[in-house]
Amino acid sequence: MKHSFEKKLNIVSQVLNGSAIRHLSLELRIQEWMILEWVRKYNIFGESGLHKQPNIRATADMKEDIVRQIIDKSLPLSQVALRYGVSRTTLERWVRLVRAEGYTSLYRQKKTGRQLKDMGRPRKQEAQTELEKLQS
Question: Of 95, 123, 98, 122, whose CA–CA distance to 108 is shortest?
Fold first, then answer.
């Protein structure tokens, strides 16, 4: 579910004024980690951190650098996600992929788009017997 900038700002203000994240989470039916992420973004970037961020197009080298920070330096996913503007889910997927298949897996090109379908008419088969020839 998408939340408006105003709603995020209101919730962050409540947290900064002393409201418990757990209480707000239960009351508003929003995950605790999401509220905590909004507060962190607000603390780092101010109000602009609560606006929707444009999607980034990560290169394979960038992915490797980011995953190395998570695996080698043991940086928390939430911190890396904030720093680079990449979602936690995406980071988890990259880390899982590297742990299963190694860093080279980040450099494979992903096939994009739908597979092409043969949209032509099926060809008529040649009549095999004399009777079939006469019937067609």
Answer: 98
Domain containing residue 90: 60-107
Q: Which of 47, 49, 79 is nearest to 66 (CA)?
A: 79
- In the three-class reduction of DSSP (H, G, I as helix; E, B as strand; rest coil), residue 53 is classed as coil
Give the tokens for residue 24. 């707000």
Same domain for 74 and 102?
yes
> What's the pLDDT tens digit per position in 104-115?
998 887 666 777
Same domain, 46 and 65: no
All residues at 6 or more sequence positions from 25 whose CB lies less than 8 Å from its CB, including other chains: 31, 32, 35
Among left, alpha and beta (phi > 0; psi -120 to 50; other), residue 102 is left
pTM of the prediction? 0.56
